[in-house]
Amino acid sequence: MRSSREALKVLLLVSALGLSWAACSHAGPAPEARVPSRGPETCSTEVRRAEVLLRVVDTQGRPIPGASVALNPPMLMAHGPAPSESQDGLLTDAAGELRLTPRVDSDIPPFIIINAEGYRDATWSLDLLPGEQRRVDVRLTPSVAISGRVVDVRGQPLPGAEVMGHGVTFYWGEMRTTADAEGRFSLSGLPPGPVALRVSLGGQAPNDMEVVAPRSDVELVWKTSTLSVEVRDARGQPLPGVLLGVQDASALGLPMWMGAPRTDARGKAELGPLPPGPHRVQALWARPGFQWVTSQEVVLAPNQGHSVVLSFEGSRVRPPLTGRVTDAEGRPLRDVEILATPVTSPDPGSLRELLLSETPDEEQSRARSDAQGRFTLEGLREGPVRIRAMEGSESFEESPPVEVPPGHDTVALLLPRRSTLQGEVVDPEGRPVTNLRFRVNDEHVDSPTGRFEGIIVPSGRVTLAVIAEGFAVERRTVQVPARKAFRLTEPIVLQPGREVSGRVVKDDGCTPIAGAVVMLDREAPPRDSRMDPLTTRTDAEGRFTLSRLEREPLVLRVDKRPPARSGPPGQIPMVRVPVAADEDSVTVRFGPEASVTGVVTDGEGRPVAGADLGSDCTSFYQPVDATGRFVLHGLEGGRECVLHVDVSRAERAAEHSPPPLVFTPRRVVLPKRGTLRVDLTAREGPASLRVRLPRKDVSAFLLEGAVPRPSTWEKTRHLLMGALTPDPRSRLSRSPDAPHDARMEAVFSQLSPGHYTLLVTRDGSEGSDVAVVHLPVTLDGPGAKQVEVDFSTARTLAAE
């Protein structure tokens, strides 16, 4: 199941090389500003290394001799700076051991890939300190196969059938193959355990079954059904040329139109092969200017033919709906797209997104305004309709939806004009500057001419950044009136820019920090630094260059290991460094670091091999080795961290069903320097909680004890860091194809009786307000308790 890992991803930083400045803006208070440090007089040029005794074993702990080990293979480094050396073709000895001495003169951890015949490949991250000596035990999972035949219901082979397999208990990827001329197939490279198989032919009629690997006698019987469809018009006559779509009614997805047939001259079509089960078949009758839609559900039995009649019979057409579209001054607008849909159907929302859809499945009528702004909508079925309008140049906003009841045959539409901004941009001598780029409220805005004219902006308080080659970025705050063409009265004068370069290093003054974000400090950091002209990142040597800066004293903000996605990331180690007006080089040194080490075990003291350890204090998941050991280096000393164990990839996760293997997050305080020992043991308890969730786009978290309702989103985020997340295998999947109103269930097991607090958050777009349900829960004793979440009790908290 994906629910637990998805919830952990909301809480943890999963990669050091992505950016999401919404998360950065949530960082806690920064340490005191540090004076630029030149570091030691000289940094040693000696290559600094660590020593690793790698031991490769099988699932029984027996050594695997001759395993091939690749150190820092280039393919792993495609998304960021790579360590400075790579080795291949290293082999374990008769005891399954190999000594490695990787370079550790950067904060990029070395990687290894281990492969051995008869086993699945393993990838491992070695988070090491210079001079560190460590033993790492890596367990390889046997590579097994599933083979057999694909046949039809008569037992005849199906050459070319596609077979796909993926893990059931934990996710390990997907394997695919194609059946040969005799229908035989083989999927190799699988771990032992349950595997979900799917067989289809030409992508049609997928059939599913579950088997346990290894197995060599699987017979996959491709069961199919056919469906005859007849479509009739409003008078009950056959309707040719109608597009037919079909979907699995249990999949909660959209109709599948691609490659779907149309009805013939008799209004009929054959659909199939289709998998048995409930389906919804939909007919879309498209004519110039309008389209009608009707659908019906049918249950298909295996190896049988079925028929269904889809009819528009009895539908009555309302008279043509005419109207005129103008701007706020009453001037007609031509070439405006007009869309009308029945009020009884869901509101399509943004007209722009709907028009980009290749096959919109909403019933609708379309028209385009002429030079006088007039339009006519035809072919609408009787009943109230909803009308929207959009002008293609983006100079106007979309019109709000207008409902037109029956009996009204005319309508007037008004498109509000968007606010625009223009002015003059000059150099210090007053000469015009061209080839300009603009950012408005941190977002790139096009200027087709490269001049400061007709820049579309929102109304109200706007932050404008003007960018030109060779000049410092000029930022202005402007109050823009609503729906007006606003011109600045004073020219914007660009000053010559300068560059500041330097290095970002660890506390020793020498070890570079790669991937750190260096930016001009300002009141509101950008939400997304990828396009920000005043932000850059350090390379593998910790070096950076920041250009287009003003020639005056400034402050640089340096964030170490930025998060890869939004969500509560915890505090990010960060320093602020003042730079003088005449200074063009600086070294930024971070404070002391701490480490956390320990062992992860189940309730019986057995190591949980293959689990991942994450924390809000680091950007990486660190793997747990075959003896349950883990090490986290490079943490900011003296701060509080929350440790999470993720078992979704662990081999032992499959062995703990039931009961599932689950862990409670551990909150710890790091030493200023040095290493903290923390052992983590799987949670065990006789009670469980099943939470029925009202929607797909929500996340559930459980806090131990009776916790008061948090008053702000910042306080809520802090609580969620240490919250329990649902079991890895909750009963209902969170399919991305499921609609937002699909009901889901989250399961928290292995709980002790007592008081708890359930927090359910509704996922929102970045920067939007967050709805939170706060529900006290008491588990009186052993057994399962079920609760229902009602979002009518939710409190909306403003996202900072």
TrEMBL record:
Signal sequence interval, chain numbering: 1-27
Pfam families per the UniProt record, alphabetical: CarboxypepD_reg
Keyword Signal: yes
Annotated keywords: Carboxypeptidase, Hydrolase, Protease, Signal
Keyword Protease: yes
Single GO MF descriptor: carbohydrate binding
Protein name stated in the entry: Carboxypeptidase regulatory-like domain-containing protein
Native organism: Pyxidicoccus fallax
Lineage summary: Bacteria, Pseudomonadati, Myxococcota, Myxococcia, Myxococcales
